[in-house]
Amino acid sequence: MFDFDQYLGFLAFLTILTIGFWLMIFLLTFVVPYWLFGNLIELFKEKRAERKAKREA
Fold first, then answer.
1. Residue 50: half-sphere exposure toward Cβ, Cα within 13 Å
2. Cβ neighbours for 10, distance < 8 A, ≥ 6 positions apart
3. Rounded to two decimals, what is the model's pTM?
4. Four-residue CA torsion sign, 16, 17, 21, 22
5. SS3 track for 2-56
6. From CA 21, how far away is CA 26, in angstroms rounded?
7. pLDDT tens for each residue of 1-54
């Protein structure tokens, strides 16, 4: 079966794999959409301000 060192290595591997999995889930479901929508909102604000400045000039 497993030696104790192999068992600890296997547990470390599973821990790192699990942390990486949940980090990817978090990034793909929260951080990336937040970043994209924030960027789009700022882009629309800039374009609206530019159009407003052209109209006033």
1. 6
2. 2
3. 0.69
4. negative
5. CCHHHHHHHHHHHHHHHHHHHHHHHHHHHHHHHHHHHHHHHHHHHHHHHHHHHHH
6. 9
7. 779 999 999 999 999 999 999 999 999 999 999 999 999 999 999 999 999 999
Tally of residues, the chain:
57
Q: CA–CA distance from 49 to each of 33, 40, 44, 54 (Å)?
A: 24, 14, 9, 9
The 8-class DSSP code of residue 1 comes to -
The enclosing H or E element of 57 equals: none
- List Cα–Cα distances, 33 to 14, 19, 20, in angstroms: 28, 21, 19
